[in-house]
Write a structure and sequence with these properties.
The protein is an alpha+beta fold. It is built from four helices and four strands. It folds into two domains: 81 residues, no CATH class; 39 residues. The radius of gyration is 20 Å and the shape is elongated.
């Protein structure tokens, strides 16, 4: 199976397009890695296939701006399936899962090394 070098950038771009299409909010702009931002109506022209879209800025009818990541949780928020408070809680929970998996794997590695040393020495 061959994966191109810009798989992550392409995936973020596709989800950003889906957010733009299905959002109940107005899309203000897309922020890309670095300090650049793309106006939403010029995104297709400005996006060169190499820039990683890191944030999508949405605006509701009251003028409140929401910053979301171009991922499945951001898409759920943009569609109105979850509130911004729930979105932030789910993002935090996903981050904690990554830390838990990391520390669990380090713990298993240390226990395995200790066990091997005990039986080999």
């Amino acid at each position: 199976m061959c994966i191109t070098n810009n798989f992550i950038e392409q995936q973020a771009y596709e989800i950003s397009k889906e957010i733009k299409k299905c959002s109940i909010y107005d899309v203000v702009k897309f922020e890309v890695l670095g300090s650049k931002s793309l106006a939403f109506h010029k995104q297709d022209i400005q996006w060169n296939g190499k820039d990683l879209i890191t944030k999508v800025i949405l605006e509701d009818s009251n003028g409140i701006h929401y910053s979301i990541c171009p991922d499945h949780l951001g898409l759920r928020f943009a569609k109105g399936e979850i509130s911004y408070k729930e979105y932030k809680k789910l993002i935090k929970r996903d981050g904690l899962k990554v830390y838990n998996i990391f520390f669990l794997s380090i713990g298993i590695l240390i226990i395995g090394m200790y066990t091997m040393m005990k039986f080999l020495i």
